[in-house]
Amino acid sequence: MIAIKCENLTKRYGAVTALDSLTLEIPENKIFGFLGPNGAGKTTTVKLMMGMSTPTEGRIWVNEKAVVPDAPEMRSQIGYLPDVPNFYNWMTGLEFLQLVGELQGLSQEVNRSRSFELLELVGLRKAGMRKIGGYSRGMKQRLGLAQALMNRPKVLFLDEPCSALDPMGRRNVLNLILSLKEHSTVFMSTHILSDAERVCDSLAVVDKGKLITVSTVEALRKRFALSSFDLEFDEEPAELSSILEQQPWVKKVEKLTINNVVGLRVQAGDVQAAKLELPKLIATQRMSLVRYEMTMPSLEDIFVHLVEGGSHS
């Protein structure tokens, strides 16, 4: 089953096109990353998919139901975490979740049980008894995730879910998101590439309202498999760098300095030639090699390449 589908989805604000002819199909029980720099159209897309905004052109279906304004049946099956969630600061976390449960029509017994379950799930069991006004931004983000899960949604929309979290909080939330796809489809808008790399089954990259590509991370790596070799030495590698720049199999040589260790990153246009010739050239320089590592492009490298116009497909 296709959980989310949109065809030629477009949103204009006067002369500004925030989203331009987006077409996507997202299978159920997957985590789908929606990546782009700030201002790329990510939040606009989420609001359109949830029926919070009306498209200028195009159509959207969620759980095989057309998205239209004021569609309670569709909304009862989705959850939403905005990029900056808002709360009643005079409430406790528990009171807020129970308010959400009441609005969703949960019985008193189910509401209370579900509220405590979710506070435990997001690491706010003790803090749930305190007023939200005293919460940090990261705590509010986790409470926002809890409210998004209150109705056990079939489709969960997360808009920058980890942007306010410290490293420990980010790890915990990402682990939680990974566990959700057993019962839900997760549409995760983010500009934090490492988060998408860790949890997403597939992803789309958008920029300036236009879809650039849809793929898995692994497929993108294979597509942009311009491999690099990271070299670290005890000595200054300036002479080796000059020699490498003259080799026909070398595309680019960059100087690296990591923890006061001097090194080079060699991008190879011909990987097989690099594997054969690079060790020989290092040996001729009689330098103290500290590290030699072949690396595949990271999602960040690929993202920059795509957004800068290296490939739009």
The level of helicity is: 25-40%
Number of helical elements: 11
H-E order: EEEHEEHEHHHEHEHEEHEHEEHEH
The secondary-structure class comes to: alpha/beta
How would you characterize the overall build of this protein?
There is one protein chain. This protein is α/β, with parallel strands linked by helices and 313 residues long. 35% of the residues lie in helices and 30% in strands. It contains 11 helices and 14 strands. Strands 6-7-8-3-9-10 form a 6-stranded mixed sheet, with helices on both faces. A 4-stranded antiparallel sheet has the order 2-1-4-5, covered by helices on one side. The model has no long low-confidence stretch (mean pLDDT 88).
Please provide a brief summary of the model:
With 313 residues, this protein is an alpha/beta fold.
List the helices and strands and how they pair.
Layout: E1 2-13, E2 16-27, E3 31-35, H1 42-49, E4 57-62, E5 65-66, H2 72-75, E6 78-81, H3 93-103, H4 108-121, H5 137-148, E7 155-159, H6 167-180, E8 185-190, H7 193-199, E9 202-207, E10 210-215, H8 217-223, E11 228-233, H9 238-245, E12 250-258, E13 261-268, H10 271-284, E14 289-295, H11 299-307
Parallel strand pairs: 3-8, 3-9, 6-7, 7-8
Antiparallel strand pairs: 1-2, 1-4, 4-5, 9-10, 11-13, 11-14, 12-13
Helix pairs in contact: 3-4
